[in-house]
Amino acid sequence: MDETPIDLLRKGKKKRQARLWVGRTGNGPPGIFFHFTESWENKHAKDLLKTFSGTLQTDGYSGYEKVGKRPDITLLFCLAHVRRKFRDSAKLGNKDAECFVMLTNILYRIEHRIAALPDTISDADKLALRQKRANLVIDRFIKKLNTTNALPKSTLGKAITYAQNRKSIMRNYLNELRFKIDNNAAENSIRPITLGRRNYLFVGSERGGETAAILMSLISTCKANKVNPNKYLKDILAKINSYPHKRIAELLPQNWQADQK
User: Fold this and answer.
1) What CA–CA distance (Å, rounded) separates 52 from 44?
2) Contacts of 256 (CB under 8 A, 6+ apart)
3) Contact in structure between 214 and 32 (CB atoms under 8 Å)
4) For residue 216, which of 237, 234, 241, 191 has the smallest C-alpha distance?
5) Among the residues of the chain, which ranges form H helices?
6) CA 182 to CA 186: how far, in whole Å?
7) Residue 259 and residue 240: Cα distance in Å, rounded?
8) DSSP character for 222?
9) Residue 81's closest CA among 1, 193, 22?
10) Looking at residue 39, what DSSP letter applies?
11) DSSP code, position 182
């Protein structure tokens, strides 16, 4: 999951910053959903995920961390966010930050090499190799975290605090081969929103934000499953009113694609 700000123009009131939340499934045909809220309060993450159980991969937003404390959820962290914060400090010439960036880069190289292994190697062997190599690097990363001093409000200090607060879950992505090292799939899903903000500037009402979220969910899932959005919408709009409500999931873009084969 991830989220991004979007301006909301409320009737008779000043423009305010609302939020678009995005969730993306990790297994099977990709499903993407957007959800609109008028604020960025923790309660929205809690409400949105109240019926969810399983593995949740996010950035470091506190609302997700509170959800992740539930016994039916395993929280995965995003190493891309960690690397990004240290990279910002490294750009200022900080040698300690460069070391952290180097270690996260090694973790990414391990992922690439494991993914490139031939199918003749079993998933169990791939997982064991991944864990052996990555755990050594994470050990070095955490040791470096615990021994590096920086002013709390400096870019390095903020990066260290961010990583320190989440080091207990840094290894969780190593538990299963299917788990990813970062949350980039969800981030990529909201990229059109961040680019589009330059053009549409805001949503005109709460109802407009909710409608936009529904349409974005459908179109994004179509694209992720290589379904032509025009053909999809033309087909389902013609049949949805008379379609059995118990079978409505058949009209989701990922299932509609399968039906066309």
Assistant:
1) 13
2) 227, 232, 235, 236, 250
3) no
4) 191
5) 42-48, 62-67, 79-90, 95-115, 123-147, 155-164, 184-200, 206-224, 229-239, 253-260
6) 9
7) 15
8) H
9) 1
10) S
11) S
- Note the pLDDT tens digit of each residue in 187-206: 888 888 888 777 777 888 88
pTM of the model: 0.86
**How many CB atoms neighbour CB 257 within 10 A?**
18
Query: What are the helix (H) ranges across 150-200?
Result: 155-164, 184-200
pLDDT digits (tens, 9 = 90+) for 220-255: 999 999 999 999 999 999 999 999 999 999 999 999
Percent of the chain with pLDDT over 70: 98
| Cβ pair 220, 189 in contact under 8 A | yes
With 0-12 CB in 10 A as exposed, 13-18 as middle and 19+ as buried, what is 261? exposed
Checking phi first, is residue 14 left (phi over 0); if not, alpha (psi -120 to 50) or beta? beta
Q: Which of 28, 177, 172, 169 is nearest to 114 (CA)?
A: 177
Phi-psi label, residue 149: left if phi above 0, alpha if psi -120 to 50, beta otherwise: beta
Please give the C-alpha separations between residue 65 and each of 2, 46, 49, 177, 184, in angstroms, as whole numbers.
13, 10, 12, 23, 18
Distance of CA 36 to CAs 150, 171, 198, 212, Å? 38, 32, 19, 8
